[in-house]
Amino acid sequence: MGRGRAKAKQQKVARELKYNTHFTDLDALQRELGTSDSGGHGIPEDTGARDDECEDWTGTER
User: Fold this and answer.
1) What is the rounded distance in angstroms from the CA atom of residue 9 to the CA atom of residue 1?
2) Phi-psi domain of 2 (left: phi exceeds 0; alpha: psi -120 through 50; beta: other)
3) pTM of whole model > 0.85?
4) String of DSSP letters for 1-60
5) CB 55 within 8 A of CB 61
């Protein structure tokens, strides 16, 4: 007993998130996260080091 009020609030929040459109200031978000627009989008280049580590650990080649 007592779960009804909490469940109703969760449903209300979920409904608001689903149907209400929210404006997101992407420039402000980028400044807050401290990322620069270098074109790489913060994704590091794949050096293949992870595959080498897996080979060492498993003893098999991929």
Assistant:
1) 15
2) left
3) no
4) --HHHHHHHHHHHHHHHHHS-----HHHHHHHHT----SSTTPPPP-SHHHHHHHHHHS-
5) yes
pLDDT per residue rounded down to tens, the chain (62 residues): 678 999 999 999 999 988 887 788 889 989 999 976 655 555 666 666 666 666 766 666 65
Longest pairwise C-alpha distance within the chain: 57
17 touches 10 (CB < 8 A): no
DSSP 8-state code for residue 61: -
Q: Tell me the two tokens of residue 34.
A: 């401290």
Q: Return the structure tokens found at 50.
A: 């992870």
CB count in 10 Å sphere of residue 12: 10
